[in-house]
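Chain A, query sequence.
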Amino acid sequence: MKERVSLLTPADRREFLRRLPRSAVKDILKDEWWWTSRPEQVPPPGDWLIYLVLSGRGWGKSRSGSEWIVQRTELFPRDSSGAPTERLIIAETIADARNICVGGPSGVLRVLNRRQIPYRYIKSPKPQIQFLETGCLIHVEGADDADVGRGHNGADAWLDELAKWPDPRGSWIEGIMPSLRADLPGDHPRAFVTTTPKPLALLREWVSRTDGSVITVRGSTFDNRLNLSPHILKALRETYEGTTIGQQELEGVLLDSAVGKVFSQVDINTARISNDELPHIPVIVVGVDPGGTGEEDETGIVVVGRDGRFDQYVLDDQTILGVGREAALHCWRVVAQYGAQRLIVENTLGKSWVTESFTSAYMELCEEGLFPKNSRPPIDTIDSKLSKKTRAEPVGMRCEQHRIHFVGYHSKLENQCVEFDPADRDSPDRLDAFVSASRWLMKQEPRRATVVTPVSRKEQATASVAAGGITTAQDLDTILASW
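Chain A, predicted structure.
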């Protein structure tokens, strides 16, 4: 409703507002759900069991789930026996359920406070919300518990970010679905599922159903653009637009499970340039993936540069067969050859010897005159706490956007990129060195921030209504501006 009214002319908006009863105007100033929601955020009537929202980040999933479960509790406070009904909120972890679904900016407590519904929020030993007037309970749980949902006589359930759960199918089939068994007068238990989509068998099964038991809604981050920072939307477009991960994270597309590759040879070929096309490269780093201790181990060494537009250029693959001192000396010679500003290594737990080895090799080359005497080795580290797939994905997205250019051909490195299997715990040396260098360059890119003062127009409008209602065109304009 809010978005539709915003499309009217100023005169028509003023006339629309003037015709509303005072109670409706108060609802507007409180951003009541009937006013701010989009049609797809409110499940329709019908005999469905699951309302499945597959949408990008920022679409409004948390607000939709919070509003829905409170509304259902108000509509069906008792089962057929007269007992107060019970409901479930389940997220990936109990901390997520508590901090996002319940206490977050769009959480259930915000809805209850806005609607002035008396409640008691019990945080321990197991979080739950009790509606004081009816005795209804909302149990708050995390899907990291293998027994999630078991033992409840549930009337409804809100399942948040199900695609991130450790075992979504097992949690649904063995725990949650059997618990949705309350006998509701005139209705039946339902599940509201809000998640950024991932190619999971359970989601594919639900989406493919044609019996009416599942209603699937797909949404984009940009559907909610009126309530999101334009600066963030611009940054999201720049980061994700034109990538498969962007289709998933922003557009809510349920990707085919075969679309799991992080790098594509087509993308590499499209962005490839020759040495003659190479622009000025002010920043160059050498990424290193130290090998193990065996004689047949390789040390990944990849040279990557960045231009003034923050495009990246793979300049060379200097990977060698060897480890230890000789490999460290070779790395520093590559740094000197390309005039690189940094040598980038992962701060892998248990490999503190790596920086010690590189420091020792650097000092040795200082004595030989390759670097200034008494200078400090320009080593920098990049974290390795994330999974191999998570580390590689941002680099893969840059390749999809054709913002990483291979200068000439580096067949062994390219093969490792294209053949990289995210499910494999091991990733090859050249790829790791390339990803480390690329991620370090990304972290150096400037971050823009906008500092603003909280807008007080809505407070002014609320005060105007409380003081005696809408009396002038100026009051109307103030309220209209607060939307």
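Residues 449-458, 460-475 have pLDDT under 50 and may be disordered. The domain at 37-240 is CATH 3.40.50.300 (Rossmann fold).
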